[in-house]
């Protein structure tokens, strides 16, 4: 006689409900993967693999262009011991940016420059603000908030430029040229910079926040940062006379949704060497009417005086604008700068086709430019320039992106779901015998 096994339907229902809830929670967590990775300390830390000469430890100063995939980030160790960070790449590279600063013994950051609000430039800066004291922060004139139009736009409560923005909206005819940014990453960046503090001589101080503008200059011991764009609005007055915690001037934009048009264009000079940065500034786009439109790089070139052109001629290092987009870094700009070295910060196999063939062709046509001085982060990894006794040298270090030291949140959540799902389905609790 075959003994029939009685099926416990209640137990099956409980298991199905439990598995369903776990599945839904797991899927929902994927939508918050970036924030969960930051909260729990998950990251994509890559194993370092040196493939060129070591950095020059006794260098007077150094400029590191970091390999942050399809993004931008540069770290500068200045001659007087101060430090600067220019952009931070996308948020998934946060740990890499932080580790770079820590490897240089950085305790605090003296200058942070966020060239514009795109997430592939400011994402990693959130972690810098979390891990280091930042004394001076330079931000774009891009307003953080939410809403599709000026009529529905609600300004981020941390945004110190609310009064300035509203004044331009109500009183000017070119209000559409004020850049409005609705990304959550930029909103978090704005939140953090106005909460950022540091200690000096035992006193706690709020970080100084400045909107960069044409004419702004940061001077140090044998170095300077000089800004040539974006341009100050004709009706602008010093922001500190209207705002509580923001300095500088309101600057011209190139459309409410054109984040790249608010990019900082500036020159870092140190001991006679010069390094040119332009964020994602464009000189044209793919519209049929492009020739009749204004673009930041084009306006920058047209605005230069003879003295400024002389200062910008024959720069030591140029980082190509917008990761090698064909709409940035025009032939006119290459001809003006005549760089000794060219860096392209770009992700390997990116979906944008960067660097574009037109840009590479422009580089080929630069007079007296040595092709081996074209350096790409997707090929070389981190690219470091160091100067010893007036001689500029470069090295590079590649990271093996196939070997990660930690899991991503999605991988971790899937493992947890599989393990607990197996326990729920297949492992039955032992029944205790009643005495």
Question: What does this entry look like structurally?
Answer:
With 435 residues, the protein is of the alpha/beta class. The chain has two domains: 9-42 and 407-429; 43-406, Ribonuclease Z/Hydroxyacylglutathione hydrolase-like (Metallo-beta-lactamase, Chain A, 4-Layer Sandwich), CATH 3.60.15.10. 28% of the residues lie in helices and 26% in strands. The chain is built from 13 helices and 22 strands. It has helices spanning 9-30, 33-40, 94-103, 119-122, 125-131, 162-171, 184-193, 296-303, 306-312, 331-337, 357-364, 377-380, 409-426; strands spanning 46-50, 61-65, 73-77, 83-88, 108-113, 133-139, 142-146, 154-155, 179-181, 197-200, 203-206, 208-211, 217-220, 223-229, 246-248, 265-270, 273-277, 317-319, 341-344, 374-376, 382-388, 391-404. The strands form four sheets. A ten-stranded mixed β-sheet has the order 1-22-21-2-3-4-5-6-12-15. Strands 13-14-16-17-18-19-20 form a seven-stranded mixed β-sheet. A hairpin with a 7-residue loop joins strand 7 and strand 8. The longest helix has 22 residues, at 9-30. The model is unreliable at 44-51 and 401-405 (pLDDT under 50).
């Amino acid at each position: 006689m075959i003994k029939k096994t009685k099926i416990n339907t209640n137990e099956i229902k409980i298991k199905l409900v439990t598995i369903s809830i776990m599945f839904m929670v797991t899927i929902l967590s994927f939508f918050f993967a970036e924030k969960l990775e930051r909260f729990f300390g998950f990251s994509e830390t890559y194993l370092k693999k040196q493939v060129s000469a070591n950095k020059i430890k006794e260098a007077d100063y150094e400029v590191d262009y970091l390999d942050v995939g399809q993004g931008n980030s540069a770290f500068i160790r200045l001659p007087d011991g101060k430090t600067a960070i220019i952009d931070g790449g996308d948020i998934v590279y946060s740990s890499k940016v932080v580790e770079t600063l820590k490897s240089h013994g950085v305790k605090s950051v003296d200058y942070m420059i966020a060239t514009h609000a795109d997430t592939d430039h400011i994402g990693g800066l959130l972690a810098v603000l979390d891990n280091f004291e930042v004394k001076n922060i330079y931000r774009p004139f891009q307003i953080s908030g939410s809403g599709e139009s000026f009529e529905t736009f609600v300004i981020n409560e941390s945004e110190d430029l609310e009064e300035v923005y509203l004044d331009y909206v109500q009183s000017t005819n070119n209000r559409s040229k004020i850049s409005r940014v609705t990304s959550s990453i930029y909103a978090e960046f704005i939140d953090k910079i106005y909460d950022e503090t540091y200690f000096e001589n035992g006193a706690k101080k709020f970080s100084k926040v400045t909107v960069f503008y044409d004419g702004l200059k940061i001077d140090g011991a044998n170095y300077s940062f000089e800004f040539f764009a974006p341009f100050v609005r004709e009706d602008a007055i010093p922001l500190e006379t209207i705002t509580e915690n923001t300095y500088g001037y309101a600057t011209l934009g190139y459309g409410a949704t054109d984040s790249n048009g608010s990019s900082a264009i500036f020159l870092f000079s140190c001991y006679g060497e010069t390094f040119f940065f332009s964020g994602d500034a464009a000189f044209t786009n793919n519209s049929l009417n492009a020739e009749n439109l204004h673009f930041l790089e084009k306006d920058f070139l047209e605005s230069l005086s003879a003295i400024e052109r002389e200062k910008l001629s024959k720069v030591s290092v140029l980082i190509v604008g917008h990761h090698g987009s064909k709409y940035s870094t025009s032939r006119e700009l290459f001809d003006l700068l005549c760089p000794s070295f060219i860096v392209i910060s770009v992700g390997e196999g990116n979906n944008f086709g960067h660097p574009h063939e037109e840009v590479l062709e422009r580089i080929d046509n630069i007079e007296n430019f040595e092709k081996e001085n074209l350096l790409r982060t997707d090929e070389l990894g981190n690219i470091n320039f160091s100067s010893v006794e007036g001689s500029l040298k470069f090295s590079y270090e590649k990271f093996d992106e196939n070997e990660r030291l930690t899991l991503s949140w999605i991988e971790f959540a899937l493992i947890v779901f599989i393990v607990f799902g197996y326990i729920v389905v297949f492992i039955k609790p032992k029944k205790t015998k009643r005495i």
